[in-house]
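$ run holo --ligand "glyoxylic acid" --emit tokens
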Amino acid sequence: MSKMNAETAGRQASSLGEEIVGRIDRLGAISETPANLTRIFLTPEHRAAADLILAWMVEAGMGAHLDAIGNVCGRYEGERPGLPCLMLGSHYDTVRDAGKWDGPLGLITAISCVADLHKRGRRLPFAVEVTGFADEEGVRFASTLLGSRAVAGTFNESVLGSKDSAGISMRDALIQFGLDPDHIGAAARIGSELLAYIELHIEQGPVLETEQLPVGVVTAIAGATRLAAKLTGMAGHAGTVPMALRRDALAGAAECISRIEEVCRTDEGGLVGTVGYIHAEPGATNVIPGQVHFTMDLRAPTDTHRKRAVTDIVRQIEAIAKRRKLALQLDVTHENRTVPCAPWLKAQVAAAVAAEGYPVFELPSGAGHDGMAMVDIADVGMLFVRCRGGISHHPDEHVDVADADAGARVLLRLIESFRPRNAAQ
Ligand code: GLV
Ligand code: MN
Ligand code: MN
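-- output --
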């Protein structure tokens, strides 16, 4: 058998998709609670997942370590040690009651691709690095993309003081995890070490399924603004205070939420808005709520559109608070501009898709990804894999094994045919 045929036969005998799905299941079992998947930054589950991923990286022929913020970092040397790298990656934290695929699919697929190169003794004219980011979702502390921001050297140290719902600061959580909050800078990489950053991710929407395609080429990652609102009124007796005299913070929040929904529903340019968290105090059936905290997540296809919508919604919330005599505190907790995928990388992703025999289909990403932070040190490319029913951030999130395999084959082809920017032009 020729070398080429032996390689192809080896790949077919053990499908990359089956290996990936097996590992997705193993990682998906590492959860705060057994009944639903929740894996949050700097928890025992974060540690257990990191240990498992590091072991897979070593098995795939990589040098592997945990970095200063808890990212897992693997490196497969090129034809000689110390070459600049093509970095692949995604995150391994989850939202609460999550699906198994959001994040881990890209990370595990990248490891399987490197393992395939390693099995064949294939070295490339560049190194391949795989990074599993410790926090992309931003569930525990208000800010997101903590892992990739640390790698990009843009981690904002002021967030170390932010506290989780149990009152534990990020600084203390890092120390409890065994990391040094004063040395997060050690996770930072410099742009000249990276040839590009490429991420494979579940689509998290219904477009590829509608198009009946297993994979798609991402054009851009939509920007987002997140805000935290605090409305303060006056707590009081539910039976004695006449309606006209109340300063009910929860009724005020409800009006704000309906207004946000109305603004987004009537927008014709794809604006989406979500209030995903609300907390009322003191929180008793017979007490008028005196204080309410809620969050907002606003996204639109263009930054101009999103910024205009944020200004409009903030004005409307201010007016509601004023009319209801509620004190309002509004803080922007996260803001990311829209990140276009680099045209030269899009072309290489598309070529790999076509070479694997699939139609090339381009689509934007409405969800946020680590590339939004990585773009500060590297050009970014992304490949989407079909998501059943378009369901994500939900336990029913699913990728078929055949699609996981298709994604892996495209990624492997992309790695093996990758040409750095100067060579590509
Ligand atoms: C990440 O999943 C986000 O888009 O919020
Ligand atoms: Mn997510
Ligand atoms: Mn994700």
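-- notes --
Residues 268 and 300 are 11 Å apart (CA to CA).
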